[in-house]
Amino acid sequence: MVVAVLAGATGFALLAGGAQAAPQAYRADQAPPPAAAVLQPADTGGTVGMPGQAGLQAALAPLLQDKALGTLTFAISDGATGKLLLGSGEGSPATPASTTKLATAVAALDLLPPTTRLATRVVAGATPADITLVGGGDPTVTGLPLDQVRIGGAPVDADSAPASLAELARQTAVALKAAGVATVHLAYDTSMYTGPVLHKYHDAMNIAAVVPLMVDEGRIDPRSPDEAPARTFDPAGQAADEFAQLLGAQGVAVDGKAKAGQAQPGAAQLAQVLSPTLPRLVDRMLTTSDNTLAEAVARQVALAAHQPPSFDGAAAAVVQTLTKLGVPMQGVSINDGSGLHLQNAIPPLVLADLLALAASPDHPELRPVLTGLPIGAFSGTLIRRFTPAQGSADGAGVVHAKTGSLSGVNTLAGTVVDADGRLLVFALMTRTPAGADQARAAMDRIVARLTACGCG
Fold first, then answer.
1. Mean of the per-residue pLDDT values for the chain?
2. Domain limits, the chain
3. Which of 244, 317, 386, 409 might form a disulfide with 305, Cβ 3.0–4.6 angstroms?
4. In CATH terms, are 53-113+311-451 and 119-276 the same topology?
5. Residue 100: partners with Cβ closer than 8 Å, 6 or more residues away
């Protein structure tokens, strides 16, 4: 049924089903009658419509007892004020898994300008026949035609399209041919980062070696639909080899195999391609839970905070930035940007606070934290969750949340709008011997119940 109200000089209304009512007569010298209020303004502060502790407890109590949850700690807060509404162990540090990316995202968006783009460049070498491919920290550079690129299963639009390695080769070939060069020696520069390149829990599937030069996040097969595709152990070498092939297709031969090396200071630039803006990178990182991209974003935080662009430096920079934002950091331990590290610890209340901060009108620069969250049953890592089969379909299209999963650990942190139109933020953190599917379904039922809750 469609109900619409049309107020204006014509003076008539459309009723349910589209039937037209008789026009209301008024004289031309009279002002038209005031239109009735159609929508009440949303309550974005105060206590009107705010769920109460007793109401939430009554609504959620049976679901919180599900044995599949194992040890559950959680926080549910008001999105407008950040006030804790209901929790259990909300201040106790727990393993956040990929919800760590919320901390990385908030730090990056706070510290870096929204216009930030990461550049992958080609510069001239010691002779006209020497060129260097320079990594600028963008792991999303793609060797695929852009019409074949998918993010979270969806095609990319112009704003989210990654930088093209083929375009970089084309620009390079144009510059070389203009200089009369047809054959080159190719070097590649990964000096932007410091420290170990392998994550402590590197498995060549969930994360690639963390270097500032790579293509398609180091995937061996970028078209693979696998959630954890095989990754090369040498992403920079793979990118250089692929670039050499693309140069050849443009009529410029590469003599021998590309070698690691550093660009000369002040070397002339021959070509450049740019990543999407930082907010788009954060959006992609959260939607797809891309660990390699998360580590790249964390290193940009480190560089902006004047910390070493390494695992340790990035973690220190994130903690430093969140502390300056006023996030309560007691009990927080961050060791990476992605959440793969088993020694990461974040209390549920801190995750809820990060989400409330992102929703605050005082921090519009943090809004991509919310817009990048996967949507229940529709996108990213939630595309197969909040379904009727799991008993949580009320959350489909309504729940926006970041997932996290490690062995025996499942986390979910995000936002819902309850039945009274109130924005709630939540973080659920479990450690359980139950199967991951069982634990996730139990968590989803809790969050789905929030959407139907008029618990004031």
1. 89
2. 1-39, 53-113+311-451, 119-276
3. 317
4. no
5. 294, 334, 336, 337, 338, 339, 341, 344, 346, 404
Residue in this structure with the two tokens 């793609």, named with its chain if needed:
142
DSSP string for 178-202: HTT--EEEEEEE-TT--S-SS-TT-
Distances in whole angstroms, Cα of residue 153 to Cα of each of 62, 73, 224, 226, 391? 35, 32, 11, 11, 24
Per-residue pLDDT tens digits for 213-262: 999 999 999 888 777 889 999 999 999 999 999 999 999 999 999 999 99
Give 272's DSSP letter.
Answer: E
Rounded Cα–Cα distance for residues 100 and 409 (Å): 13
Q: What is the pLDDT of residue 3?
A: 34
Chain Cα centroid distance, residue 342: 20
Q: Which residues contact 23 (CB under 8 A, 6 or more apart)?
A: 10, 11, 12
Q: Which amino acid is at 355?
A: L
pTM of the model: 0.88
What architecture (CATH level 2) is domain 53-113+311-451?
3-Layer(aba) Sandwich (3.40)
Residue type, 88: S
> Mind telling me the catalytic residues?
98, 101, 289
Contact 185, 129 (CB under 8 A): yes
Tokens of 79: 């999105």
**DSSP string for 9-32:** TT---B-GGGPBPPPPP--TTSPP
Q: What span, in angstroms and rounded, lies between the C-alpha atoms of 354 and 413? A: 10
Contact 105, 334 (CB under 8 A): no
By the 10 Å C-beta count (0-12 exposed, 13-18 middle, 19+ buried), 35 is classed as: exposed
Going by their DSSP bridges, the two strands 183-189 and 130-134 should be labelled as: parallel
Class of domain 119-276: alpha beta
DSSP string, 308-372: -SSHHHHHHHHHHHHHHTT---TT-B---SSS--TT-BB-HHHHHHHHHHHH-TT-GGGTHHHHT
